[in-house]
Amino acid sequence: MKKFQSVRGMQDILPPKSKAFRALEDILTSSVNQFGYHEIKTPILEETGLFIKSIGDGTDIVEKEMYTFVDSKKNSFSMRPEGTAACARALIENGLHDSINRLWYLGPFFRHERPQKGRYRQFNQFGVELIGIEGYEADLEIINIVNSIWKILDTSPLLKINTIGDIKDRKKYIEVLVKYFKKYQNDFDENEKNKIKINPLRILDSKNDKIFNIIESAPKISEYISNESKAHFNNLLESLNKENIDFTLDEKLVRGLDYYNKTVFEYIDNKRNTQNTICAGGRYDLLFENLCGKKVPALGFAIGTERLLEYLDHKIYGKKEYHFYMVIINPSDLQYSLNIANTIRNLSKKYIVSISYSYGNLKSQLKKANKLSADYCVIIGSDESDNQNCQIKNMDSGKQDTVSINKIHEYLPSITE
Ligand code: ATP
Ligand code: MG
After folding, report:
1. How many angstroms separate the CA atoms of 148 and 389, rounded?
2. What digits encode the pLDDT tens for the residues 228-279?
3. CA nearest ligand 1 atom 23, residue
4. Residue 307, ligand 1, Cβ within 6 A
5. pLDDT of 342-390, one tens digit each?
6. DSSP class of residue 119?
């Protein structure tokens, strides 16, 4: 019989990984909540044109990574490869883009890439967007948010930061860059030659050692940045210094999407060489103008949650929970036991009660509880149901007590704290 498997590059997330995933999502969402950000949920499918217009048609995403299909009415739709374009679309569509918006999103994204560790065809991103503030203070807020997340997670990936100036600066720079690359035409492979034609900036973050020297000696974008962009960037860097936030200036950092300008940044795992960007973001003051003709300053970032979990070695724990395993000896005590289970659950969200329905043999049920790493066993036999109580056994110390139903609330806190 045919055995079905998950689609290449798409993975199931099973317990206990799913638990780490959920704990991470809780940390991410609760920390941005404290900065006054609100959730936005947008559909998985968008018109393909939205991504072409936003991300740009010379980018890897639009050129080859989107899952696109044409429906029976000949409309082209794509599964979202990133979240920013849809946020902008939703704000414009709902007439909200005139005010300041602080938004976050979390969910699956899709890119047809070569699957490998840290690179999947369906992956999750946690993204944050701050829309409507032109000043460098917004850039500072965004970086402060990411740093506060690293603090909670007790980690400190390296912040690489750069400014790519405004669109006029970039146009000038690209002309100079292309001229420079032309001198070394024979050193580039076909793929790189194509990139020079459609997205020459992207050559700068190439990982090909053969062109390392060419890139190192290339003209620097900083020489083409306008005074206004320079001042914005310097103000930001000064504030980062004042806040003791470490960063590395990286002139080769350009980011792959067309909508970026001014500040761009990445947080990388400096222990590994490949797929090491955990979080990436930047300013995109041109996106709204491209989509609706109105200038709206904005910036944001996205964290790849699978990559972040791998970076943390899945060592992330939510608040300690207490697992109770309920052992029932006689089927006739089921109703009595279910009531006790609910009583315990209602006492605290930290109390997890699961029930064994195998009845009979106490020893084998206790063995199962051990296997499941239960913290406590709640044992119910006919004596217990006759006397309106239960046995609570601490699986760590082995201590076992008879506890009356109406005393459970007094008994549990004292044994769990
Ligand atoms: P990369 O250079 O690694 O391809 P990117 O520039 O395409 O990254 P963004 O579009 O900025 O990445 O996405 C933000 C974050 O989402 C990345 O830093 C990464 O953590 C994560 N991410 C991007 N693509 C994938 C993928 N295919 N699988 C898993 N995570 C991904
Ligand atoms: Mg990519």
Report:
1. 47
2. 999 999 999 999 999 999 999 998 898 867 789 999 999 999 877 777 899 9
3. 304
4. yes
5. 999 999 988 999 999 999 899 999 999 999 999 999 999 999 999 999 9
6. B
Q: How many Å apart are CA 89 and CA 83, to the nearest integer?
A: 10
CB 65 near ligand 1, within 6 Å: no
Is the shortest distance between the CB of 280 and ligand 1 below 6 Å?
yes
Q: Please list the ranges in the chain whose pLDDT falls under 70.
A: 256, 317-318, 413-417
Q: What is the whole-number distance in angstroms between the Cα of residue 114 and the centre of ligand 2?
A: 10
pLDDT at 298: 98
Separate counts of helices (H) and strands (E) for the chain: 15, 16
Q: Is the whole model's pTM more than 0.85, yes or no?
A: yes
Please tell me the distance between residue 230's alpha carbon and the centre of ligand 2 in angstroms: 28
- Residue among 42, 69, 3 at smallest CA distance from 127: 42
CATH of domain 17-166+225-311: 3.30.930.10
Closest CA to 245 of 329, 176, 306, 161: 161
Residue to substitute in 125, 266, 273, 283 for testing ligand 1 pocket (most ligand atoms within 8 angstroms of CB)? 125
Q: Given this model, what pLDDT does residue 258 score?
A: 76
Mutate to test the pocket of ligand 1, among 110, 123, 264, 308 (most ligand atoms within 8 A of CB): 123
Give the residue, by CA position, lying nearest to ligand 1 atom 20: 304
The residue whose CA has the least distance to atom 21 of ligand 1 is: 304
How far, in Å, from the CA of 375 to the mean position of ligand 1? 39
Q: Quote the CA–CA distance of 168 and 225 in Å, as a whole number.
A: 9
The fold of the 322-416 domain, in CATH, is: Rossmann fold (3.40.50)
| Among candidate residues 316, 341, 319, 315, the one with its CA nearest the CA of residue 412 | 341
Domain ranges of the chain: 17-166+225-311, 322-416
Distance between CA 273 and CA 400 in Å, rounded? 53
Q: What is the DSSP letter of 293?
A: S
- Token duo for residue 1: 């019989």
**In a mutational test of the pocket of ligand 1, which residue from 105, 121, 150, 277 has the highest number of ligand atoms less than 8 Å from its CB?**
277
